[in-house]
Design goal:
This protein has 13 helices and 30 strands. The longest helix has 22 residues. It is α+β, with helices and mostly antiparallel strands.
Length: about 600
């Protein structure tokens, strides 16, 4: 069963997905959202790939080098074996700058015997929309597009280029290397240089992992998730991608296929909160700088998502030349959701700004910029919190008064008041307290469904929604409050299926979901634990961890029946929730966990 059995390698500027058989099947260069160089993931024939083909006699085992984002794939048939170390170079140079070129290095280590392989090199630049021609230039293989748009990449190796281009058998009798670069190299590429890059990159990732907060339980899963989140961070701007891919479907053969190579303010804010709690303060500061840069004017409205360089227009189009993942069309690039209105983003953004003030140092200039953003957000919330929106799940039909959106409007004002107290801006604090109370009271009255004995998806609705479980996490209600306990239990009754959760079950503009949204199951498990159902929560959590792929990675969705991973991959949102849930379960007594924010009682 195809289970999205890929590993991700990254240099925090771009990434590549490598299959469990050692083939690069998705890579965009020079940055995450560039056109693809390899996209076999989205079309077996037209997408392009690069890998090592061996006979069926070989067994293939894949794992990450401990505490790194370097992937090791071992090929062996008993008498003959070799392994490939895949990475994108990233390490610190003198002066503190990072060496992180748009390169993939494949260091091939001979182990024993004389393994025979075919080196498959079949790049398809520009999403395969035009022909790519490979030419042996002696020093390298140059791959160039033939069509309206010019693009090129360069392939370096100490393996004979004609054997590669003709797909002749190659005997691995010593260590060797492959380097794929978006740029032509000015220095000769050698095995020693490739090995040095490997060692330096390994040291970088191990040093990064070393300063990450450690936990007594689930440490391996927490660390792999943290490394994955770092891999999805665009170092140049501080943005965090939702995922590395586009158009991996929520359900095979259906049309819920979106491009996730962008920065959602909601998702990224949560990621930064978790990463900073793991000891990586620099990432939090970089993201805040990204936010400041994309909101330069006081009257400018916040979008729900931006390009990783801060782009505000993310025009959506389809790639009709690609057949899609297992035939799931259309393949989309860009994302039309950037024009949607979602009121929840303001609360999550404000939470991150609050954490910046209470946990990290800020300069006077930076504080003044952030305070302007805070005041601007409160003004927006005050003027628009009564209005319906698309909600957290970005429904593309009618707007509704979603409970989660209202909750996050309350969070926005609550955190703004806390920030005002930190900065001594008493006049603003007093003005905003009444607004906070008004939002709180409306949620308390209109989102509660007496018949269901639960807070429901939207005002007047009988439908449950997994996002409501976050009420406790955001400090709106205490875990042992009878209303919250009842909401968790009703959510389990209505949305839980074999330990996995629906986001919601009411029909949306695409029909009832047929797969579980991974983050929702993590939310549910954490909620169960906090209301006292600790053994059940741990059982669900262990089961959920078993549904990851062979490397511990999660996508956006899990099929209810087969437990197959679906949706874009790897998903930052899923790994964020894994870390949060694991850190709660790793603490013996959840009542002693230090709450990030204290509930407000009116």
């Amino acid at each position: 069963m195809d289970n999205l059995d890929y590993g991700i390698i990254s240099n925090c500027l771009s990434s590549a997905l490598i299959s469990k058989h050692g083939f690069i099947e998705w890579c965009c260069l020079p940055i995450f959202d560039s056109p693809s160089v390899f996209a076999k993931l989205l079309d077996e024939e037209k997408g392009g790939t690069m890998g090592f083909e061996v006979s069926d006699e070989y067994t293939i085992h894949q794992e990450y080098i401990w505490n790194t984002n370097i992937l090791r794939t071992r090929y062996t048939n008993g008498d003959h074996s070799f392994e490939v170390f895949d990475f994108m170079p990233r390490y610190e140079k003198r002066g503190g700058a990072f060496y992180a070129p748009p390169d993939i290095v494949r260091f091939i280590r001979h182990i024993k015997g004389s393994p025979r392989v075919k080196v498959i090199y079949d790049p398809k630049l520009e999403y395969g929309r035009q022909k790519t021609v490979n030419t042996d230039k002696g020093e390298y293989i140059e791959s160039v597009t033939k069509g309206e748009k010019f693009d090129s990449i360069y392939f370096y190796s100490d393996i004979n280029y004609q054997d590669i281009l003709n797909q002749n058998d190659v005997v691995i009798e010593k260590n060797c290397f492959v380097l794929i670069s978006y740029h032509e190299k000015l220095m000769p590429q050698t095995l020693n240089r490739a090995y040095l890059k490997y060692q330096r990159t390994k040291v970088y990732w191990m040093n990064w992992a070393e300063i990450t907060t450690k936990y007594p339980l689930y440490q391996e899963e927490i660390m792999r998730s943290a490394l994955t989140l770092k891999a999805l961070t665009f170092e140049k701007s501080g943005a965090v991608l939702a995922a590395a891919t586009t158009s991996l479907p929520e359900t095979i053969g259906e049309v819920r296929n979106w491009d996730y190579r962008f920065c959602w303010v909601r998702d990224a804010s949560m990621v930064i909160r978790v990463i900073s709690s793991l000891g990586h303060v620099k990432s939090a500061r970089s993201f805040l700088k990204f936010i400041i840069n994309i909101i330069p004017y006081k009257d400018e409205k916040m979008q729900i998502m931006y390009g990783i360089n801060g782009e505000k227009v993310l025009t959506e189009e389809t790639l009709d030349n690609l057949s899609g993942y297992h035939g799931s069309k259309p393949v989309r690039i860009g994302n039309a959701a950037y024009v949607q209105k979602q009121n929840d983003i303001y609360g999550i953004l404000m939470e991150v700004i609050y954490q910046q003030f209470v946990q990290f140092e800020t300069t006077l200039e930076n504080s003044e910029q952030l305070w302007s953003i805070v005041k601007g957000i409160v003004d927006i919330v005050e003027n628009h919190w009564h209005e319906p929106d698309k909600g957290i799940w970005e429904l593309r039909t009618e707007d509704k008064h979603f409970t989660f959106s209202k909750l996050l409007c309350w969070v926005a004002v609550d955190r703004a008041i806390k920030i005002g107290n930190v900065l001594g801006r008493r006049h603003c604090v007093e003005e905003w307290k009444e607004l906070r109370s008004d939002i709180y009271n409306e949620i308390y009255e209109k989102s509660w469904n007496e018949k269901m004995q639960a807070y429901t998806q939207s005002y007047g609705s009988d439908d449950m929604d997994a996002s409501i479980l976050l009420m406790e996490q955001y400090g709106f209600i205490k875990a042992k409050d009878p209303r919250y306990v009842s909401t968790v239990r009703v959510t389990e009754e209505e949305l839980c299926r074999d330990g996995l959760l629906y986001r919601y079950k009411n029909k949306d503009d695409f029909g009832t979901p047929t797969s579980s949204f991974t983050i929702c199951t993590f939310w549910f498990i954490e909620s169960l634990y906090k209301i006292g159902e600790k053994e059940k929560a741990k059982k669900y959590f262990d089961d959920l961890l078993s549904y990851s792929n062979h490397l511990g990675l999660f996508s956006e969705d899990i099929d209810f029946k087969t437990k197959r991973l679906l949706g874009n991959f790897p998903q930052a949102y899923s790994h964020l929730a894994l870390i949060e849930t694991a850190t709660v379960l790793a603490t013996d007594d959840s009542d002693n966990i230090k709450d990030m924010f204290k509930p407000i009682v009116y």
